[in-house]
Amino acid sequence: MKLKLNILTYIIFWCIFFTTIGYAGEAELILDAGEIEWDGEYLTAKDGFELWLDDKYMKGDELYLDLDTKKYFFNHVSFTGCKKESPHYLIIAKGVKFYPEEKIIFSGVKVKIGKIVFPLPMNLVLKYRDGEYRFPNWFPEIFYSGEKGAGIRIKGFYDFSSDLYAETVLEATTTGDVSFKVKGNYKRGEKLILNAGADYDQEWTAELNGNYLIGYGFALGGGVEYDQEWAGNLILNWRQNKEGFRGSVNWSWKNDEEVYFGYLKNGWHSKINVSRNPSGKITPILEVNSPKLNLFGIDYSIMTGVTKVTEKTTTAELNKLYITTSFSDQYMLGQTKLGWSFNPTHVRVDNYGIAGKSKSNIWVQSSLGKRWNLRLGYGRTDRWGVILPAEFDEYTKEEYVEGRLMYHYRNELDEGWDLELKGQYSLESKEYTLGQMRVVRAYDCFDLKAEVDFIDLFIEMGVRLKY
Prior knowledge:
By secondary structure, this protein is mostly beta strands.
C-alpha cells in the first residue's frame, strides 16, 4: 500500500521512531512537508520539509527514512539547537546521514553565526555516547601557557566512511611553537580494528596498532611506534569467556616483553605476569585483586601480591610482598553528604622488614542556598615501620585541607552562570594553593568558558555550541 499526500501534512511519531534512533524518553517528532510518500516501510518527504524534535529544529529539501534498515538521509538541510526565533547559529549541510545509536554525519557544512557564514573543511560528526548524540568541540580555543605563551587550538573531524574516522588537533603559540596531532580509527565488522596516530611537537612521533579476532577465543594484535627510533610488539591474547581463564603473550622489539596468565571469577582476578626488559632483567608478579565487597555497610576491596625488586646500591634481587586494602562509605544527613575513605598498604622487602603507609580522607558536601555548593575535605598521608629506600617506596607524610566552591544558576532557557574554585591548604607547610578555577557563561545554545590552572599557570578560553 502506498500513500501519497500533496497537501501540508503533519505526522506525529510517539516512541516508534525514537526507539529506533535511541532517543531517550517519550519524545515528539513533528514533520511538516509539501509531499509525503509512505508505503509501510519507506517514508519520503519532498518539496521541502520542516522537522521538530522536541526543542530541536531542522528544515531542508528532501527526507528519506528506511525504518526497516534504520537508515535516514536528509538533503540540503539547516539545523539548530537554539530555542530563540532568530537563532544564534545554524548548521547548514548539503546532506545528512543518520546511523541510529552510532553517529550522525553532516557533510558539505557551513556555519552561520549571527549574520556571518563560513564553511568548515570537514564533516561534522555526532557520536552516540551515554544515550545521546554529541558534536565534537570544533570551535577554535584560545589558551595561555606559562611555557609557550598565548596560543590557539583548532580541532578537525573527518568521517570518510562508516568504517574510517579521523581527527586532528593543531596548536600555534606566540612563541613560534607549532604542534600537530592526527589520529585515525578503522573498524571492519567485529573482527578487525586499526588505530594510527602521529604527533609533531618539535619532533615527530608516530604509532600504528591493530587487533584481529582469529576465533576460538584468540585475538592477534600488535603495533609499531616511532619516537627517535622504531619499536614494535606482537600480542597473542586468549579469552574464552567473560569469566574464567585468559592469557596473553607479548613479544616486543626494543620494549618490555610479557607473559600473562589470569583467572577471573565473580570479580576476583588472580594473575601471573612475567616481564623482561630490553636489558634482559626478568620481573615476575603474582597478584590477587578482589571485587568491591561490603562488611557491615562499609565498602572495601583487597589487593595482594609478591614480586621481585632490585636494590640500586648492591643490585641484589629482593622479594617484595605487598597487601593493600581500601575502605570507604558515605552518608546523607538531609541535604548534606558525608564521606570517608581509608587506604592502608603494608609492604615487606627482604633485608629491610615491614613498612606501612596509608591515605585517609574525610569530606562533607552541602548546599548553601539554591545556587551555591561547598565541599570541604581533610586528608592525610602517613607512614610507619621501617624506612624503605627510594627505589622501593616514594611516599611522604602530609596533612592537608581541600576545598571546592561551586555556583550554579540557570533560568528557564538554560541560561546562566557556573563557577567552580578548587584549592588546598597544607597543615604541614602552612601554605595555601589555589588549584583551578572554571567559569562558564551559558546561553540557550552555546557556552562561553574559561578555565585557569594556577599550579601549572595555564589558561584556556573557548566556545562550545549546544545542539
